[in-house]
Amino acid sequence: MAAPLLDRQILERLERLTIRWQKSFRGLVGGHNVSRYAGPGQEFLDHRNFHQGDDLRAVNWRAFMRLEKLFLKMFQVEPRTPIRLLLDSSSSMTASPEPGAGTKFDYARRLSAALTYVGLVRHDSILLQPFHEKLDDSHLASGGRHRFGPVNDFLAALEPGGRTSYFEMVRQFISAYQKPGLLIVVSDFLDDGEVLKPLQYLADFGHELMLVQVWTDSDRSPNLKGDVVLSDAESGGSLEISLDEATCQAYTEEFDRYAGAIENLALRSGGRYAGFSTSVPLEEAIFSALNQAGAELQRAPRSA
């Protein structure tokens, strides 16, 4: 077995959380999120007029005896909505704050493990889907908290590498997963090509987006001065540039504008966004930053 990505203390705190989504999706009966679609269920929703071909067992016969009209009873259905987690495993995720420190991928991997554990506790099924320029081998996590071991092993065995191509990845994803659901993307969202348009395609196909952006402090605020050579972790290319305080400030402002554009896309499409540096302690990211960003990691009621 691989070394645990999360310690017991964090797992115990995760027991009190649950992943929720905003939209109603047509899905299988089960789960913990109430749909607004009418269907088989236990909680009464509304009445509608009876139409030929409707199930007579759903007719409100008491209303018929009083009004001599047929009305169909509708109930809320609790769908088991598809939850999929896209984890960026490209080479850009290998960046770390300093030599020997944990990388963005290590941080994103632990965050993905935490989100998956929350889903398992509530008996949701979460598909873990690593990607770079294409979709890698996936892992379906289901069956409750006792099935977290295989999730830990799967995530721990992942090796980041390759270039990022959101256009190609999204094209494959839409082809492979046509049923819409909650889509969590954990990434630095760094790509030489377009990122916003592919993400918008996912929203247009009916997926509810929860975008989690991870960066190092140096990604946002490079602590460099003078003539430097920058190397691209994915392409291997290099760029000679002269940096001063004004240039670094302009870079930070552009980074913030880009992060803001990703956040606006998520919110505009009815989704959610959270972004933070790897210098933020993991527990704070899970229990504070995500929650404050409206990520709907709401506390679930304790069982009696």
Low-confidence stretches: 27-39, 298-304
What is the SS-derived class?
A: alpha/beta
Q: C-alpha Rg, in Å?
A: 23 Å
Helix and strand element order: HEEEEHEEEHEEHHEHEHEEHEHE
Number of helices: 9
Q: Between the first and last Cα atoms, what is the distance in angstroms?
A: 34 Å
Strand tally, please? Answer: 15
Spatial strand order of the main sheet: 9-8-7-10-11-14
Whole-number mean pLDDT: 82
Helical percentage: 25-40%
Give the amount of beta strand, in percent.
15-25%
- Global morphology: elongated
Biggest sheet statistics? 6 strands, mixed
Explain what you see:
The protein has 304 residues and is of the alpha/beta class. A 6-stranded mixed beta sheet has the order 9-8-7-10-11-14, with helices on both faces. It has a 3-stranded antiparallel beta sheet with strand order 3-5-4, covered by helices on one side. The longest helix is centred in the C-terminal third of the chain and has 24 residues. It contains 9 helices and 15 strands. The chain starts with 7 loop residues before the first helix and ends in a 5-residue tail after the last strand.
Task: List the defining traits of the structure above.
304 residues, elongated, six-stranded mixed β-sheet, alpha/beta, 15 strands, single chain
Short description:
The chain is α/β, with parallel strands linked by helices.
How are the elements arranged and paired?
Elements: H1 8-14, E1 17-19, E2 28-29, E3 38-39, E4 43-49, H2 61-67, E5 71-76, E6 79-80, E7 83-88, H3 104-121, E8 126-131, E9 139-141, H4 148-156, H5 166-176, E10 182-187, H6 196-204, E11 208-215, H7 217-220, E12 226-231, E13 238-243, H8 245-268, E14 272-277, H9 282-292, E15 297-299
Parallel strand pairs: 7-8, 7-10, 10-11, 11-14
Antiparallel strand pairs: 1-15, 2-6, 3-5, 4-5, 8-9, 12-13
Helix pairs in contact: 3-4, 5-6, 6-8
